Amino acid sequence: MSEDDPRDLTRRFARLIRRSGPLSVSQYFGEANARYYASRDPLGGEGDFITAPEISQMFGEMIGLWCADLWQRSGSPEKIAYVELGPGRGTLARDALRVMERFGLVPDIHLVEGSPHFRKTLLENVPRATLHEGLDDLPHDRPILLIANEFFDALPIRQLVRTPKGWRERMIGLEGEKFAFVAGDQPLEAAMPESLKAAENGAILEVCPAATSWMREIADRLDTQGGAALVIDYGYDAPQFGSTLQAIRKHGKVDPLEAPGTADLTALVDFSALREAVGHNGTEKGSSDAESETKVSKRCFTTTQGAFLERLGITARANALAKADPTRAQTIAAAHRRLCSPDEMGELFKVMAVVSRWEEWADPAGFA
């Protein structure tokens, strides 16, 4: 049976459940997505979904402009690294770097990508790049400009459900031969905040330990190296109840419990949890006495994707592209609308910037 045969993972999960009991949503999500991304290129019209960089070059160009502007206003450090998490084919990096170079910013390029399908394509599309599977081996001797576009939504979530017996882990078991959501047996009441203990039966709370871990590591690097991070994803800005788990195949939603490993599993990103993971305190760079280190604050900025792109000048760029090639004017206008309209990606997608105080980095453009 081939690696990407959906029956393989379905049977594996069924065996695990029969042998050891229900799986956590997190385990199911993580293993299904690992199989999914290892076995295909999901992007584009022939794939399962399309991301903003694939919609239009304008998106990557605005990201490149954001990086170049921040770099210039922060003293134009000679050594700097462009880091992108989950770069896919490298479309965003290619478009962004093209703009950066026009402003004199020629960073080292470090792309963090685990998919073997994408890693091969990345070396063709971004030949100067160094590829990584995590943050551990990134350079430590220079500031970073880190971009994470639609990265956090693909990290596995935990789901907690309120039952008549209290809060329990939401699990995936079997009803006959089909997967079904069930509540776990282990009480979670002691770990829940007091404000959530009286939630209605059936309430679902999502948490993403993996997102917290990634964001803390990013924040630690900004503390020690300087620079900024830009996170763009679809999500919400305050904690909320409800399941946002979904599966996407051929540009449509499908049952997330059907044929695991053959659809992209995602969940909305809790930006309030990302801000909490960043934390409010770092240590003053250059202090040699740990006991006398001065506390400083990293700065977090949040807005919607539509507002962010408009403030950076995407409308002017769309007009310029349409004027240069009138035959593509309608296509360009449609892409602009899809990226910025509140009815499409403009409101659902949020943008968060985290800027370190080190090296006197300026406040970023696009947030006011």
From TrEMBL:
Gene3D superfamilies: 3.40.50.12710. GO terms for molecular function: protein-arginine omega-N symmetric methyltransferase activity. It comes from the Bacteria. Keywords: Methyltransferase, Transferase. One of its GO terms (biological process) is methylation. The keyword Methyltransferase applies. The keyword Protein transport does not apply. PANTHER family: PROTEIN ARGININE METHYLTRANSFERASE NDUFAF7, MITOCHONDRIAL. This is Class I SAM-dependent methyltransferase. The lineage of its organism: Bacteria, Pseudomonadati, Pseudomonadota, Alphaproteobacteria, Sphingomonadales.
